[in-house]
Write a structure and sequence with these properties.
- The structure is a homodimer.
- The first copy, chain A, has 13 helices and twelve strands.
- Chain A is an alpha/beta fold.
- The first copy, chain A, folds into three domains: 44 residues, 434 Repressor (Amino-terminal Domain) (Orthogonal Bundle), CATH 1.10.260; 135 residues, 3-Layer(aba) Sandwich (Rossmann fold), CATH 3.40.50.2300; 130 residues, Rossmann fold, CATH 3.40.50.
- In chain A, the strands form two sheets. The first copy, chain A, has a six-stranded parallel β-sheet, sandwiched between helices. A six-stranded mixed β-sheet of chain A has the order 7-6-8-9-10-12, sandwiched between helices.
- In chain A, helix 5 links the parallel strand 1 and strand 2.
- The longest helix of chain A has 17 residues.
- Chain A is elongated.
- Chain A starts with a helix and ends in a 9-residue tail after the last strand.
- The mean pLDDT of chain A is 91.
- At the A-B interface, helix 4, helix 5, strand 2, helix 6 and helix 11 of A face helix 4, helix 5, strand 2, helix 6 and helix 11 of B.
- The first copy, chain A, binds a DNA duplex through helix 2 and helix 4.
Chain lengths: 338, 338
DNA sequence: CGGTGTTGTGGGACCGGTCCCATAATTATA
DNA sequence: TATAATTATGGGACCGGTCCCACAACACCG
């Protein structure tokens, strides 16, 4: 068993109170005593129990984080941002990968409650389960602040840091038009997802503004996964009349699209130009030059964590939503080379 | 403040002991009493404090995990494996991304100690700092079992689950030879890294076994990063006499290599064939068909966590090293099309 | 009917800290 | 030099659980 504060007290011939004072340097301690205590601590390699401390302080210093999939770099980057701030501010993270599974999310919330987390971060949309929503409301009612990262509008009763999907899609579409494309399509995610809807709207509005028509058959509804995107693109590319450019709603979908293009022995951007959402670092590293809408994911994480800390310090804040505008990175795949 | 066991006891008109018995269903409790207590628990939405429990039990149920970089899928997958087992067995993970930074690793170990972790997992090589090693030894001496995941041989005094880099490189090289290549090179990582050394040895032995010479200038020493790999490959490809195939030691290096090939307007595998280490899911998804040595990373995570649990249950086990043999996935990039 | 189990419940110490309050020692002030 | 203020330390309650032990209630058995 590790040494306790009692052991230190005995060895240094002082009371536990004095040791505690030295540890937290609070209150008065004679210099001589302090050095003696510190020496003993060093000697016995003592480290105070965070557990006991938490119990006494009624502060766990822990933040719960729920992510749909840590392997997705889009989310992993947000976590990086969260971690950075949490480290600096002395908070510990309890990270749970929910696998987009309602049950797992429920269990996580339960575990978080037992751990007495002080705050909660939820990346992307929380489960739509009524039970989950109730749980979240219950937490908030019990002074556990919650901040959403790029979540669903349905939950805008909570604080959140969002990405401006509308604007991102809008900018991308304009860029395609400026590159000289007349007929432009979109490869988009599930309609049930708020970001997908926003992107679609951004796309459509931009088209209208530019005086272009967006044909219904050029709106390809996928599910954010690469497989569906592959089939949709392949089908689309075999049509006689078809778009010369595509706005692609997620990095996974870009992959499926590229596979379709490559299987049909076509070329980007000659046969099909595109701009994607999210970074595609891997592809750019091998020199494929994919133009993208870069969401500032790391920053989302940082801002969310900072916001949470503000809440922790001052419970009486107005609910606030921060919206980050993505930047366009044009690298060539949007060109019109006809 | 959340309800405590005392509140439940009062509301149900029993003692704390009885409530505790109901919660852990240990000891005798009359059925009638049990249901009454459970009703109150439900009503007050009570959840026992893991913190208080830990203090009393002297069990934190927490495992510390140190990873060099969560964003690297190679490591992220191991974490997936670890998580899966930990979840099932009721352990909590304290995950720290060390950024391959000694100081951060030290701080993490310190924090882990305060959290009274019951076991420690270290992904890839722990910091070479003498201080870290001492810390690890100290932990082990204090009954905190440690399991290394794909770590450095220097630390084989600890339990570990490793990937057979030697065998992987060996198999890959043989495959290149069988594909018809005569002159084969290797793009390898830092020599200070044990995996890099192992891969190099596997490569060289395979060459010798096949009766082929490996020229010194065909051994390209990188640092696992894509940038260095890019330059090395580019230089190599401009030589008059050069390998027709490469064994590439990491997925990052493959990226650099491919950029070099693409910039020189060369083709894979016509101008340069290769087999890489680690999966390259992204590239395969877009139909680039990269042959790779697949290490079973998820399994490494699972086995490591299982091993740790064994240790937790029985401290008196012999130190054991599990070595997993990777599998070869040939997808075309190794072909000899001259 | 009294002894012996088996069930069911409560009391209190303990886990390892923090912190308030009392008191002791030292220094400043009148 | 007595008194007040400041500095230094210790004692004990408390945080929210667990668990051992004592004891009460009830059944069974000879």
């Amino acid at each position: 068993m590790p040494a306790t504060i009692k052991d230190i007290a005995k060895a240094a011939q002082v009371s536990r109170s004095t040791v505690s004072r030295v540890l937290n340097d609070s209150g008065y301690v004679k210099e001589e005593t302090r050095t003696r205590v510190l020496a003993v601590i060093e000697e016995l390699n003592y480290s105070p129990s965070a557990i006991a401390r938490s119990l006494s302080n009624k502060r766990s210093n822990t933040i719960g984080v729920i992510v749909p999939d840590i392997n997705n770099p889009f989310f992993a980057e947000m976590i990086k941002g969260v971690t950075r701030v949490a480290d600096k501010e002395g908070y510990r993270l309890l990270l749970v990968d929910s696998d987009e599974n309602n049950e797992k999310e429920q269990l996580a919330l339960q575990a978080f409650q037992e751990q007495r987390i002080e705050g909660l971060l939820i990346v992307a949309t929380p489960a739509k389960e009524k039970k989950s929503l109730e749980h979240l409301r219950w937490m908030r009612a019990h002074h556990i602040p919650i901040v959403l990262l790029d979540g669903h509008v349905k939950y805008d009763e909570f604080d959140g840091v969002f990405i401006d999907h509308y604007q991102g899609a809008h900018d991308a579409t304009i860029a395609l038009v400026q590159a000289g494309h007349k007929r432009i399509g979109i490869l988009t995610g599930k309609l049930s997802s708020r970001p997908a809807m926003e992107r679609l709207r951004g796309f459509q509005d931009a088209m209208t503004e530019c005086g272009l028509v967006s044909y219904d058959e050029d709106i390809l509804f996928g599910d954010y996964g690469h497989e569906k995107a592959y089939h949709l693109t392949k089908e689309m590319l075999t049509r006689k009349k078809r778009p010369s450019a595509l706005f692609v709603s997620s990095n996974q979908m870009v992959l499926g699209m590229m596979r379709a293009v490559s299987e049909l022995r076509m070329k980007i951007p000659q046969d099909l130009a595109f701009i994607g959402f999210d970074q595609l670092e891997t592809l750019n590293l091998i020199g494929m030059n994919c133009s993208t809408v870069d969401a500032h994911t790391v920053e989302v994480g940082e801002l969310a964590m900072k916001r949470l800390i503000q809440r922790l310090e001052n419970e009486k804040l107005e609910t606030a939503h921060t919206v980050l505008r993505p930047d366009l990175s044009l690298r060539g795949s949007e060109a019109n080379l006809k």
